């Protein structure tokens, strides 16, 4: 049981310059007994309102240096404070605020909402067990207008999809990875590096791109690129929800539409998922 969607904004000031982290936190506990379920005995139950208050107090006392460290702090707080807690799991996602720039200069206290992928993390710990940390990015929309196709697929009497060697590839990406033993990691640096790897693997070189024969191959390329470039990552999960675009037929309007006007296909949409880890 636990508390979902604890929303808070942490403001940190250095002189006249302001820094912010806005997050949503979900914290769940498992107690060492289940008397509250079986007997209606609540003596060991930590109220969810208390869970919320602990999260807020930790934000006040410790700040939010990184999402991962904040999640670790929450897990450790419940493990060290309450002997009846056998397991704790905390999920945190960040609201994507970016510092506002005016004429190239960063503003000291103004920010803009820039949804360019949502950062999140998870930390979980069992009593007498290791602390496990995950991190990830979700709702990252990616699109390239060429260097993608889909050919040679299985066909039968139900197949209506034509083969294509030049199409738009668009998708909404979810990516989650696990770390090994956390040894003073620079979580911000690692997260930014992984995001950079995702973009590089999806797009290819900036002057020519890289051909993708399928969404599945693109997912695998992203995973392989991250595992090659970021040694701290042990296992990486990628889900790519496909967003398709159809070329508008303009023959009745007396026009030839050479893939210049397209409309997105809202539903149904495809999805490709894969989890890849080191040996």
Explain this structure to me?
O2 binds at residues 48, 242. Pfam families: Uricase. It comes from Probosciger aterrimus (Palm cockatoo). 5-hydroxyisourate binds at residues 48-49, 150, 167, 216, 242. This is Uricase. This protein is an alpha+beta fold. The two termini are 35 Å apart. The model has no long low-confidence stretch (mean pLDDT 95). It is 24% helix and 40% strand. Strands 1-2-3-6-7-8-9-12 form an eight-stranded antiparallel sheet. The chain has helices spanning 35-38, 48-62, 67-81, 187-203, 215-229; strands spanning 2-14, 17-31, 85-94, 97-102, 105-113, 118-126, 131-144, 169-179, 233-242, 244-247, 262-265, 271-277. The chain is globular, with a radius of gyration of 23 Å. It has two domains: 2-129, Roll (Urate Oxidase), CATH 3.10.270; 143-277, Roll (Urate Oxidase), CATH 3.10.270.10. Helix 4 runs antiparallel to helix 5 (215-229).
